[in-house]
Design brief:
The structure holds three protein chains of three kinds. Chain A has 13 helices and 17 strands. By secondary structure, chain A is of the alpha/beta class. The radius of gyration of chain A is 21 Å and the shape is globular. Chain C is of the alpha+beta class. Classes of the chains: A alpha/beta, B alpha/beta, C alpha+beta.
């Protein structure tokens, strides 16, 4: 039974969820094994509707939990085909065990995470706690700042993840509600062009090749485990970044939309810069431009690839910047934010005299306003002028009550 | 539909080419392996296998060795069922799309799990797989205890059994709860086929496994697997213990078709029925029950087994 | 494989059972298969044994009880005949002896170092059934 192709306008008005669902359709995913959770639900609902309307012909397995969703994805990926799912927050937390198993078994799977806060207290809105929770899980992590990127990055994620030299699962993050439920114009590819970018799935170590039986998911103890984990890390450090760059390049040739491991805005001559992820990047860009009108040389770096972390690219981009703010949208639970630590690490052994301060913001979907960013850039400029960090190194912004600052 | 393997008698069965290998790390005398062999040898079709974490898994895929001659996957403790369900979904997808490498094959999808992985931690996953009616077979290697981790109680551990987390002691007779009726629960999913099997009754077992393989949809198998280590008996006596389990009717052998049609498949003659006491006495885990203060539990055991047997007989007769 | 480095493995710790194409495995006996060094078939657990079974062919009726109840795929049956024991894979559990129905038994357990020929030469006589 053949499936139907869908006629798309060059620009469709899609929210991030529907953009991701359309990308899964166009990639002709073989198995989606999924469980609904706000705010990612419309991705799998969208896919289900495509299935019901004969726009996809793979299998769609609606399982009984997120853990089972990823378990099904792992079984399907090991069997040998294109696999995807979506989740958020608590769902990702329940799924977390299996993420390590998927990456350890080197299975290509694309997971859309629509970022949402982690309970308690229960919250359905966007922050990056879920993304951060699985940052050491061995998955490639892309971050989309808007619906267009949620669409585009899915194709890139399949391309990289399924590459036989990579064979590592990939996450595409997008902000809950701010991206997932906000409709914007999305430049589309027609079905054939879109599929041609990812191409036919090429199986490897597939369980369904009965001429070559394979054993997946072995036990290794102290005599073998370290070597396997080392290999996984090595490939992330040495193979994956180049494959990501190549996919970005190829995608740019196809669509004119060029992505980079870190996206730099107004960074050429920046004295002060904000490093952040998700929808905050767009807000920061707008404020940076306004700060420049006021004579402050402000720039923005958006982290496009969170894993493998673009350590050297960050070091290069920030080497001449005087003061930098790392914006972390996750409660760090007794330490600086993850971005603060990663950026500090990337600059520590360099000649940079960059002043770094960390900001915790936007938890549970709290708005990051332009006013917050104006104040933040002003603080950075003051730091730059003074040649030292005048505030404490970690501050909370946008929270009610007495000022929170530490370290 | 593939042709069913012909197995008239044991001699014919013994011409099977095993797809499970020795030098695995299961204990000497472990019944798991006997069950696995009877399942795998029941068909000549290709197999896609999974195991949940447990004795079978940790003993058959310890790097750099595998004891499996068919594709096999292990993910975690709870999700062997869903692993194979995912593979089955991929098989269907690739079949639809015409991308199977060997489209002429008729693979069977089988997941194995211990009672800990099945009655307890993987319960929801199995329920999901059964409810969705994947074309797969789930086999419980039911040794009534977390044997792999040293003998903790599971919800399959029967009353009066001394497990490490419910040890018998000066004021305790061990496990206080009755074994969970997993067969009843699984059959209640109205799956096409559920059966309880025992490796000593190989013909009954192979017949059921073949019936399961011929069934389109989800199949649940509960196999009694006497554990020499945790039931505490001599490794040479594994089959004797299995005989006691089936002939005392502690493990009655029956099948349930479509959730309602119950058939008892092994009915020992009245004179051959072994008193439950004999079954209990053969195992170290029940030794304390033979103290005066706990002897009433043996009587209760017998009454429970009799009642269950009567219940199964009534179910069989009633066809409901 | 004992000292292989991190760059010398298949990714994902994946193992293959056979060299090349497996063919019809369910129809291929062990001796005709091309196992890799990763199949546990290539390994041995002979050192687990304290006692070993010895097979006295003369008494065997080829009932195959030992074949089906052996947990370790160590009873070698070919063409419906029991032809011997795979001593690399036998763990010495003794199940085969227990399930052997002949009188005298065709399989008996002996200390690991016992000499097969000597033991077969002095095999026990048929037991009289007590009524």
């Amino acid at each position: 039974m053949a499936f139907d192709k869908m006629e798309l306008r060059d620009i469709e008005v899609w929210d991030g969820n529907f953009a991701a669902a359309q990308a899964l359709r166009q990639c002709q995913v073989d198995v989606v094994s999924a469980y609904p959770i706000t705010p990612s639900t419309p991705i799998v609902e969208g896919y289900a509707k495509f299935k019901s309307d004969n726009y996809v012909e793979g299998e769609y397995v609606m399982v009984e939990s997120e853990h089972a969703a990823m378990s099904g994805c792992i079984g399907a990926a090991a069997a040998g085909g294109r696999v995807a799912t979506a989740t958020s927050s608590q769902g990702l937390a329940l799924m977390a065990e299996t993420l390590y198993q998927a990456s350890g078994m080197r299975l290509p799977i694309v997971l859309n995470i629509v970022n949402r806060a982690l309970a308690a207290p229960l919250n359905v809105n966007g922050d990056h706690s879920d993304m951060y929770m699985v940052r050491d899980s061995g998955w490639i992590q892309f971050d989309a700042f808007c619906p267009q990127e949620a669409y585009d990055l899915n194709f890139i994620a399949f391309k990289v993840s399924e590459d036989h030299a990579v064979r590592t699962p990939a996450i595409v993050n997008q902000d809950g509600f701010m991206t997932s439920h906000t409709a914007q114009g999305v430049h589309t590819m027609d079905d054939d062009t879109a599929f041609s970018f990812v191409g036919e799935f090429k199986p490897m170590n597939d369980m369904l090749d009965f001429e070559h039986p394979v054993t997946h998911g072995v036990q290794t103890e102290e005599d073998w485990h370290f070597e396997h984990k080392a290999r996984q890390h090595n490939d992330m450090m040495t193979i994956v970044p180049g494959k990501i760059d190549a996919a970005f390049e190829e995608f740019a040739k196809l669509t004119g939309r060029k992505y980079n491991q870190i996206e730099q805005y107004d960074m050429d001559d920046a004295d002060v810069a904000v490093v952040c992820m998700g929808t905050s990047v767009e807000t920061a860009r707008e404020v940076a431009r306004e700060m420049r009108e006021k004579g402050i040389k402000a720039g923005v770096i958006g982290i496009r690839v969170f894993r493998p972390f673009p350590f050297m690219a960050i070091a290069e981009a920030l080497k001449d910047v005087k003061a930098v703010a790392a914006l972390d949208r996750s409660a760090p639970g007794g330490t600086p934010g993850a971005l603060f630590n990663e950026i500090a690490g990337s600059l520590f052994n360099s000649d940079s005299k960059m002043l770094l301060s960390g900001y915790i913001y936007g938890l549970g979907g709290r708005d990051l306003t332009k006013k917050h960013l104006v104040d933040l850039y002003t603080e950075l400029q003051a730091n730059a002028d003074a040649g030292k960090v005048l505030t404490q190194q970690q501050q909370f912004i946008g929270v009610r009550g007495p000022k929170l600052a530490y370290l | 539909m593939s042709e069913m393997k012909k197995i008239k008698n044991l001699k014919e069965f013994s011409t099977s080419a095993d797809r499970f290998e020795g030098a695995n790390l299961l204990c000497p005398g472990c019944a798991h392996s006997i069950i696995v062999r009877e399942v795998l040898n029941a068909t000549n079709d290709d197999l896609v296998l999974a195991a949940s974490t447990g004795c079978l898994e940790v003993c058959t895929a310890v790097y750099p060795y595998t004891s499996w001659d068919a594709s096999w996957i292990h993910i975690g403790f709870e999700n062997g069922s869903t692993a194979v369900a995912g593979a089955e979904a991929m098989y269907k997808a690739l079949k639809t799309k015409g991308r199977l490498k060997q489209p002429d094959r008729n693979p069977k999808f089988v997941a194995f799990g211990g009672d800990g992985a099945s009655y307890d931690i993987g319960f929801q996953w199995i329920s999901g797989c059964m409810e969705r009616n994947h074309d797969m077979m789930y086999v419980v290697l039911d040794n009534e205890v977390y044997a792999n981790t040293g003998g903790q109680r599971s919800s399959s551990t029967p009353i009066g059994s001394s497990a490490t987390t419910t040890p018998a002691g000066s004021i305790s007779y061990g496990e206080t709860r009755n074994k969970k009726d997993m067969m009843g629960i699984m059959a209640a999913h109205n799956i096409p086929y559920a059966a309880q099997v025992a490796p000593n009754k190989w013909k009954d077992m192979v017949k059921k496994i073949q019936k399961g393989f011929a069934t389109e949809g989800a199949v649940f198998i509960n196999a009694v697997s006497p554990c020499t280590t945790e039931w505490k008996f001599d490794p040479k006596d594994t089959m004797h213990l299995t005989d006691l389990a089936t002939d005392s009717l502690v493990f009655p052998l029956y099948e349930v078709i479509d959730g309602h049609e119950l058939n008892i498949t092994y009915r020992p003659k009245e004179k051959d029925i072994v008193p439950v006491e004999e079954y209990l006495a053969a195992q170290g885990r029940f030794r304390h029950l033979f103290k005066d203060q706990y002897k009433y539990l043996i009587k209760e055991w017998q009454e429970r087994v009799d009642a269950n047997w009567a219940y199964l007989n009534r179910r069989e007769e009633a066809r409901v | 494989m004992a000292n292989t480095g991190w760059d010398e493995f298949e990714i994902g710790a994946m193992l293959r059972t056979f060299e090349g194409e497996a063919g019809n495995i369910a129809g291929t006996l062990q001796e005709d298969r091309k196992y890799t060094e990763n199949s546990s078939f290539s390994a041995s657990v002979a050192d687990w044994r304290i006692e070993k079974p010895i097979f006295a062919k003369d008494y065997c009726i080829d009932c195959q009880f030992c074949w089906i109840y052996c947990p370790d795929i160590s009873i070698i049956s070919r063409d419906k005949k029991m032809i011997g024991i795979d001593m690399d894979h036998c763990k010495g559990c003794g199940i085969c002896v227990e399930v052997c129905p002949t009188n005298p038994k065709s399989l008996l357990m002996f200390p690991e170092l016992a000499d097969e020929e000597t033991e077969i030469a002095q095999w026990p006589a048929k037991e009289k059934k007590e009524k």
